[in-house]
Write a structure and sequence with these properties.
- The protein contains 1 helix and no strands.
- It has one helix at residues 2-67.
- It starts with a helix and ends in a 13-residue tail after the last helix.
Length: 80
Amino acid sequence: MFGLASSARVKRLERHVTKLEEVIDILNLNLSSLQSAMLASSKTQEAIAYDVARVGELVSALLEAAEFGGLAGSDSGTMH
């Protein structure tokens, strides 16, 4: 009888281990998906930062040109 009880316990523990392995597999997939999403977000943020810097450079160049009269018309005060 003692051998029968320990055999049932071993089987129960094996089922539990199998379930835990399945949970680990699911968690690994979720972590992989999160990592991919974070990487994509990081790349997007880098692209946005680059675009913002370029727009800033353009605005600075326009302001500098306007300051030196490069964009002002001769008498009308309109931009060309």
